[in-house]
Amino acid sequence: MTALTLSTAGAATLRADALVVGVAKGAKGPVVAPGAEAVDKAFDGKLASVLDTLGATGAEGEVTKLPAPSGLKAPVVLAVGLGAVPEKDEAYDAESLRRAAGAAARALNGSKKAAFALPVEAAEDAEAIAEGALLGAYSFTAYQGSDKDAKDSKNGDSQAGGTGAKQPLGEVALLGAKPRDKAHKAAAERAIALTEEINRARDLINTPPNDLFPESFAAVATAVGKEHGVKVQVLDEKALVKGGFGGILGVGQGSAHGPRLVKLTYTHPKAEKTLALVGKGITYDSGGISLKPAGHNETMKCDMSGAAAVFAAVVTAARLGLRVNVTGWLALAENMPSGTATRPGDVLRMYSGKTVEVLNTDAEGRLVLADALWKASEEKPDAIVDVATLTGAMVLALGNRTFGIMSNDDAFRTSIHEIAEEVGEQSWPMPLPAELRKGMDSPTADIANMGERMGGGLVAGLFLKEFVGEGIAWAHLDIAGPAFHEGAPFGYTPKGGTGSAVRTLVKLAERTAAGDLG
């Protein structure tokens, strides 16, 4: 993992492979951002002019490398775009800093150490830069290089990779932060814990499904839980049958890899609230008997991104020692076609006792979530949030970078939306129109797992709502768009698994601990 240090050294005197400075987009060309004064001085006050000559504009995410002049210990200066210059008396917002730091860190893969001299006016700025740099430096290289290298990396750090892989940036030295300041130190510690768990979630999402299946995912959760003081309980097939978890069993019965329900429990002795998080964990989704066509199944290892997000959030809460009880439920199954698979037309009896007619086996995520939601509801938490790569309809509605939020409580939905925006995760509140429920009426069972095609993401939300205990505030995050990025990396977002929703869940836990959510 990339190391983080807070440094009081000056930008001109710190030894590093590269020195990162910010540049903003001004009305008449690039403008050097605060934090880079010493670097600008080394360029005789002409850094902005040099960048302008090289074609730099200061646009968000733009990266320009140039040789350092005499007077700087680092041999390379990397200028990264921060976007528009803030209005008078305003600072650079956290997300601009986060994205700029991420773009710079990614551009410095292969370097041992880089000093970041971006604008830091408060501890929150230092935290945003640290988050962006540590997330941007991420790379998944466990399966690159020789067989021996790959095996060694899989036994240790999955980012270590083989000999053919370019290593991530080794160390981020954050200038302008105050290592002895309590707020700055706490900000750095939070950034390290949060980003390490997000990157662990990314590793899980990126792991091929022949290596990550319900049993192996559960084993990872057990090992990590033990390390960080999180109690882990794993329900295997025998326990699921005994407990009557018909949804999870129905989805997983076609696979050679049996399903699991994993419960993660973090408790604080002074906690006054309990938050339950439920994650969809389909480690590979072929669609089952309702088989996905070619072109739609190549990335379906990412269908466990919701479970990865919940896992990361619970462990982060434990590492931060938050004054709230957090329970995570990972509904794990592999959806495969076979002679034992659930068929369209089958009826499953869920853990809640309700029966569900399966009209489409590729609408499987809602089935495993339904069992986990009802189980979570039995413990009477103050709120439940489920996270899932649930519907293509949500991607059509909101695109590849925004997740949808549905809820049985408008105020709770608004709070989650505001939290997501605050931490830099794009989201949008979505309705649960009552008239769409009728489309799921079944002549055979209590409810069908499919309804009207139009508004399919909302239909899925309405289905899940049926399995939430009475009187419990619940929200559903459909992260089908942003969970797995297939395009070119941008900001701190890599190609592949992104760790979507983790930051929102952690901030929600922090707000709950502080009593800010009622």
What's the arrangement of secondary structure elements?
Layout: E1 3-7, E2 18-26, E3 29-32, H1 37-42, H2 47-53, E4 63-67, E5 76-84, H3 94-107, E6 113-117, H4 123-136, H5 147-155, E7 171-175, H6 182-206, H7 214-228, E8 231-235, H8 237-243, H9 246-252, E9 260-266, E10 274-285, H10 305-320, E11 325-335, E12 347-349, E13 355-357, H11 365-377, E14 383-388, H12 392-398, E15 403-407, H13 410-423, E16 427-429, E17 447-448, H14 456-465, E18 473-478, E19 484-485, E20 496-497, H15 502-514
Question: How is this structure best summarized?
Answer:
With 518 residues, this protein is α/β, with parallel strands linked by helices. The protein is built from 15 helices and 20 strands. Helix 3 (94-107) runs parallel beside helix 4 and helix 7 (214-228) runs parallel beside helix 10.
Note down, in words, how this protein is organized:
The structure is a single chain. The model has no long low-confidence stretch (mean pLDDT 95). α7 (214-228) runs parallel beside α10, α9 (246-252) packs antiparallel against α11 and α13 packs across α15 (502-514). This protein has helices at residues 37-42, 47-53, 94-107, 123-136, 147-155, 182-206, 214-228, 237-243, 246-252, 305-320, 365-377, 392-398, 410-423, 456-465, 502-514; strands spanning 3-7, 18-26, 29-32, 63-67, 76-84, 113-117, 171-175, 231-235, 260-266, 274-285, 325-335, 347-349, 355-357, 383-388, 403-407, 427-429, 447-448, 473-478, 484-485, 496-497. It is of the alpha/beta class and 518 residues long.
